[in-house]
Amino acid sequence: MSCRHCSASLRLELIDLGSSPPSNAYLTPEMLSAPEKTYPLRIMVCERCWLVQTLDFAQADEFFSSEYAYFSSFSTTWLEHADRYVADMVERFALDRSSHVVEIASNDGYLLQYVKARGIPCTGIEPTASTARAARDKGIETIEAFFGAGFGARLAAEGKQADLMAANNVLAHVPDINSFVAGFANLLKPDGVATFEFPHLLRLLAETQFDTIYHEHFSYLSLTAVQKIFGANGLAVFDVEEIPTHGGSLRVFAQRSASGRRPVSDRVAALLAIESKAGLSTAKGYQGLQRRAEKIKDDFVSFLIEAKRQGKRVAGYGAAAKGNTLLNFSGCRRDLISYVADRNPTKQGKFLPGSRIPVVSEDVLYREKPDYVVILPWNLKAEVMQQLRAAGLSAAKFVTAVPRIEISDSGQVKDVR
Fold first, then answer.
1. Over the stretch 241-274, which tens digit does the pLDDT of each residue have?
2. Which among 64, 86, 102, 185 is placed 20 to 30 Å from 363, CA to CA?
């Protein structure tokens, strides 16, 4: 396979997580009697541009169906993040009723609802029908399509150029990353700004966040790689911020290379230097993730087996994509985790892909009061623990497996490595 950005041959492997189905391909009861389609989950590193990427085994539309089950608005923490983002961007770039904001992968309108509330015209671009419907129900204009260079040029020709474009947690999801980035250069006004948020590869490597790897994530991004990709497709990075979302992310600010006039922040060079010191421009910087991930897997499975031997009841919380990576890599089934509770009704009554663990409503968790609750979206641990304890699970112990297995008991955290 060749690099999806620069076409160099891929020879350096970062990690091999075996085979698994798409992480958001939840099963209905009727589907349990049929086989599941699985794909190898191998991650490679381009030694020319340093883009970390999956090996391609399927088309994007196999991972993003019309009934895609991820809805952003079910996380209070994420809604608060979106509200703060809109407030900050409105102030920093003086957006008003004469501006136009476009979000790519706008999901269920979780972010644009705050733009609309300020009276600023906005448009969402969202390829999945289920989430696009939810956004329209909020009164947000949403175009159902995959975004790319041609689509961006067409919207610009229709007079829909943007003062601000937002792309939260989508840059990693696109197979044709060059066309995707070029679409921003085509759709932005000459002095427009685009922001991109994505989990930082540096954090993934440093904290063994291997469960953020799944088929829907085609790329794993550093500022080093992103700057090269943007430069080749008409965008220039002028600022970057480190933010806490998803276990440590970057917010990159970009402008059109041909017409942008904003000065480049010192933070850009500073972060590039940090990445260089961490070895992200050398093959050595990518060594060791496989061994560390296998250690986490072994510790997690050992905990579950011991809990089963002791007759303890173990449930999960959060039918998240990262949880599916962990469960499938670990080979977990419902004999070790009885069910996973989730507040998203579109997932309830279905089964996790691969592990086939049933997804239930939170009411089941509150009624049955298991001894342990494994929090699969560990990046939301504080929010989930507060919510579950307030709902009556004060006696339960909460477990997270990444970056190491920890058990929280009455506010105390025990490292059980």
1. 999 988 899 999 999 999 999 999 999 999 999 9
2. 64
Summarised one tens digit per residue, pLDDT across range 352-381 is 999 999 999 999 999 999 999 999 999 889
Distance of alpha carbon 353 from the chain centroid: 17
Report the relative pairing of strands 162-168 and 372-375 from DSSP bridges.
unpaired
Question: Which residues face 316 on adjacent strands?
Answer: 340, 374
Amino acid, res. 307: A
Give the CATH number for residue 135.
3.40.50.150
Residues 6+ apart with CB under 8 A from 85: 111, 166, 168, 195
Domain that holds residue 380: 290-415
Residue 263: exposure state from Cβ atoms within 10 A (0-12, 13-18, ≥19):
exposed
For the record, the structure tokens of 208 come out as: 């063994």
Quote the distance between the C-alpha of residue 180 and its chain's center. Answer: 17
Domain boundary among 248, 264, 280: 264
Rounded-to-integer distance, Cα 61 and Cα 355, Å: 22
Q: In 3D, which of 24, 8, 164, 159 has the Cα closest to residue 101?
A: 164
